[in-house]
Amino acid sequence: MDLIDDGAEGNTPEFSVSELSGAVKRVIEGEFGFVRVRGEVGRVSRPRSGHVYLDLKDDRSVISGILWKGVAARQQNQPEEGMEVIATGRLTTFPGQSKYQIVIEEIRPAGAGALMAMLEKRKAMLQAEGLFAADRKRPLPYLPEIIGVVTSPSGAVIRDILHRLRDRFPRKVLIWPVAVQGAGCAPQVARAIEGFNGLSRGGALPRPDLLIVARGGGSVEDLWGFNEEVVARAAAASDIPLISAVGHETDTTLIDFVSDRRAPTPTAAAELAVPVRMELIGTVRDFGLRMDRAMSQRLEVRGQRLRDMSRALPRVDELLDGPRQRLDIMGERLPQALTRSVDRRKLALSEIAGSLRPAVLTRAMTVEQRRLSERAARLKPALDRLVQTRREALGRRADRISARPILREIEVQKTRLADLTRRLADGQEARQADLRSRLDALTRLHETLGYRETLRRGYAVVRGDGHVVTTKSAAETATGLEIEFADGKLKLGGGSSSRKPAKPKLPEQGSLF
């Protein structure tokens, strides 16, 4: 048996798979911590996580790349398959699959040629879907009540639009502020178009009748947000007619092809949106004058025709001459016609009366009597059967009728009547007792408050000539006095006296005067 010397193998260190993968990862990230790669975008994958996975390739090699969700959202130009780009990032490894990849921090088209190639490709795709078709273009409203403007609120574009609208025909304007360049341009413009379309008519914020998407001039990169597919599809799906006014007259973007009307400048968009108010007023005034002249000429022509036709019409007397003559002739012929009609009626009556003989009437009466007798003979048995049926039905119902429930109901009602009578009597007695006690109380109160109780305390009532005397002068002028005490009345002779009467002695208990 041969012995193998493994001393050399024993000095070689052993690595686990994870340790070796980590060492490779550190070496690659250390050597290629910042790289820029130029290549063509191959496969592009966008899972629900928001990350973007892609391949960068040339004619001989392929390298995998990844854009994390936050980095992908910041990119102005999203990578598409077939697009030549320059990617900036760092190399790293993915130990789970023993592969290396580039983590991209920034990706942009490789020059204007790449941008234009991507634009042409996107344009061909949208055109193949029919978004550029002329039959999809809708006419603009002649005089919109509300105009929605999608643009930057701080630029000169919105001022130019408002100024032009104010000069031509003032309208209500709703402004949706958006970024007009950069990574946020495309999604903000798309959301603005969709937001205007989502407004309801007659709501707190009214829905515009016309939309204007506007931006000033700039480079291809500055205007690239309006070449994005999301903006083009939002403009094509808009239910509100849309005018695109992006850049100068020589600038062309995808939104220009899908919009209902393209304006070379934002100012031209305002001119397309509304007519000139003064020109419109002048046109309406001209139309009114033309209509007045046309109506006057038409009335003049019709009046002349009416006068010409009236001269050809006969006079009223001539129209009535013929009917008057026919009326006279018919009036003369009417008595003779009545006489002949009466004679014909008499002749017809004589002929009919000749055929009416007593025998015929007797025969007719006999036939009617026979018919009546037959019907009477059939009627009596039918009436008898009906009476018998009704009697049997009445007998069956009489068998079901019993006097016991009626008698029981009578007893119950008698008991209720007796109870009500008793309650009525008790109530009447209680009411009479209450009234009697109230009357006694009132009587006592009357006696207590009456003047007779006062008389019993020693006072008196003096009357003169039937009236109560309350003053000395009234007593002197009275012809007779009557004093009423508690136990009776005393009459005194009275009259005026020349001497002054003696001062009467006051009673111990006082007097009532």
TrEMBL record:
Reaction(s) catalysed by this chain's protein: Exonucleolytic cleavage in either 5'- to 3'- or 3'- to 5'-direction to yield nucleoside 5'-phosphates
One record GO biological process: DNA catabolic process
Enzyme Commission no: 3.1.11.6
Subcellular location: Cytoplasm
PANTHER family from the UniProt entry: EXODEOXYRIBONUCLEASE 7 LARGE SUBUNIT (PTHR30008:SF0)
Similarity-based family: Belongs to the XseA family.
Protein name (record): Exodeoxyribonuclease 7 large subunit
Protein's organism: Antarctobacter heliothermus
